[in-house]
UniProtKB/TrEMBL annotation:
Classification via PANTHER family: GUANYLATE KINASE, GUANYLATE KINASE-RELATED
Gene that this sequence comes from: LOC107711703
Any GO MF annotation of the entry: ATP binding
Subcellular location(s) per record: Cytoplasm, Cytosol; Photoreceptor inner segment
The protein's name in its UniProt record: Guanylate kinase
InterPro entries assigned: GK/Ca_channel_bsu, Guanylate_kin-like_dom, Guanylate_kinase, Guanylate_kinase_CS, P-loop_NTPase
PROSITE patterns the UniProt entry points to: GUANYLATE_KINASE_1, GUANYLATE_KINASE_2
Originating organism: Sinocyclocheilus rhinocerous
CDD domains with a match to the protein in the record: GMPK (cd00071)
């Protein structure tokens, strides 16, 4: 796929993916753009339709998947989640680096596409800390929390698979983890800046050439 390499962030629910990627989107406004997924789960207080997720019914999501509108989709903790082609294209059309926040099934499915992202795994320091963070976040019912903890155990095991992720970050101290995330995506930022400089250079040359032609035609 053309354009800068996207960044895939994955890891157990509660590991800190949203917290870290929001920091990145804020510090590098205009450089990174978030791929807004579709989900059948209900919005949490403070979440916005079209910004955090596109909140849809199972019927709508299934129809869109059948229509070939999704790059990948998965069932997580009793809900459907998926990345639409339009979500990624919307970011890439703005010449921004696309960031995807997806689960392990999503990672495995994206690996079968031509998206070619950098794969970053965000992991909690321990299951105990993960559980505490999820409880303190106060977004889950006991049932949903248990499902997430179960999925987390599986995720933490699979993440050890060599070569699955380019970088694995243990999110213990937030600032340290954020520093590591920035290091991981630095290469993409660097090439994005070079691309922009080249694009500006060619645009300037083209404008000068047009101006010259207009002037020449008048003489
Ligand atoms: N495969 C896939 N997973 C997604 C997508 N969007 C979100 N997820 C994952 O779904 C899981 C649950 O997300 P969410 O309900 O927002 O809970 P949270 O991660 O605990 O904040 C997380 O692991 C997300 O990374 C998507 O488009 N595709
Ligand atoms: N390094 C950290 N130390 C302490 N709390 C954290 C840290 N990173 C994230 N949190 C908190 O843990 C909870 C889960 O983080 P969140 O970003 O929602 O995880 P995810 O998006 O992976 O589900 C949130 O309440 C967040 O404020």
């Amino acid at each position: 796929m053309a354009g800068p390499r996207p960044v895939v962030m994955s890891g157990p629910s509660g590991a800190g993916k949203s917290t870290l990627l929001k920091k990145l989107l804020k510090e590098f406004e205009g450089v990174f753009g978030f791929s807004v997924s579709h989900t059948t789960r209900s919005p949490r207080p403070g979440e916005e339709n079209g910004k955090d997720y596109h909140y849809v019914t199972r019927e709508v999501m299934k129809a869109a998947i059948a229509n070939g509108e999704f790059i990948e989709n998965a069932e997580f903790s009793g809900n459907m989640y998926g990345t639409s082609k339009a979500a990624v294209q919307a970011v890439q059309a703005k010449n921004m680096i696309c960031i995807l926040d997806i689960d392990m099934q999503g990672v495995k499915n994206i690996k079968r596409t031509d998206l070619n992202p950098i794969y970053v795994s965000i992991q909690p320091p321990s299951m105990e800390i993960l559980e505490k963070r999820l409880r303190d976040r106060k977004t889950e019912s006991e049932e949903s929390l248990q499902k997430r903890l179960h999925a987390a155990k599986v995720d933490m095991e699979i993440s050890k698979e060599p070569g699955l992720f380019d970088v694995v970050i243990i999110n213990d101290d937030l600032d340290v983890a954020y520093g590591k995330l920035k290091d991981a995506v630095l290469e993409v930022i660097f090439f994005q800046k070079i691309r922009n400089v080249i694009a500006t250079f060619y645009l300037t040359i083209a404008s000068l050439y047009l101006a010259f032609l207009t002037l020449y035609a008048r003489l």
